[in-house]
Amino acid sequence: MTSLQRTLRLFLVFYLSVFSHAEKTKKFVEETKNSTTAGIFPFRDYKEFQISDGTAGDSKERAAKVFVEPFNGVDLSRVDQTDLQNLQNMSKAAILNEEFFVKAISVQLAQKVKGLNVEARIKEAEEKLAKNIALDKKTKGRKMISYLSLDGKQGGTES
């Protein structure tokens, strides 16, 4: 398999993963979106409350702003079933999207590992080159024959 074929294969796997995830999330949101207005915790689409964009280092605080702060200072006896359902549905959406995020990161890591394989292949090629140079020096003075000039015969050096 060539490098281009591997790259295209990785892209295809990533694309299908994204497409599958998008359909799964869309279906989930359509099934769980509550059309009634909640008193304390209104339902929001994932794209409205996701915390993956921005600067790293404050994810806990950003998640608390979405899921905890709406309940600060609120008499919890006022929390109704709609609030709880919205909280649960948004939490599920966040978990589904986290799984997708992990898959996307895994693809990136696989590409980095693939890059490390390039270094290993370069080292292997350098070792092969060194071996061929040593063989060439060992057979110094012998007649060489290219496989291109052999008409089906085996190429190499003649003794």
Task: Give an overview in words.
The protein is mostly helical and 159 residues long. The chain has a domain at 3-111. It is built from four helices and two strands; from the N terminus they run H-H-H-H-E-E. The chain has helices at 3-32, 46-49, 59-67, 81-138; strands at residues 144-145, 156-157. The chain has a two-stranded antiparallel sheet with strand order 1-2. It is rod-shaped.
Cα-atom radius of gyration = 30 Å
Distance from first to last alpha carbon: 37 Å
DSSP helix fraction: 55-70%
- Sequence of secondary-structure elements: HHHHEE
Keywords: Signal
Jot down its keywords.
single chain; 159 residues; mainly alpha; 3% strand; signal
Describe the structure in brief:
This protein has 159 residues and is mostly helical. Helix content is 64%, strand content 3%. It has a domain at 3-111.
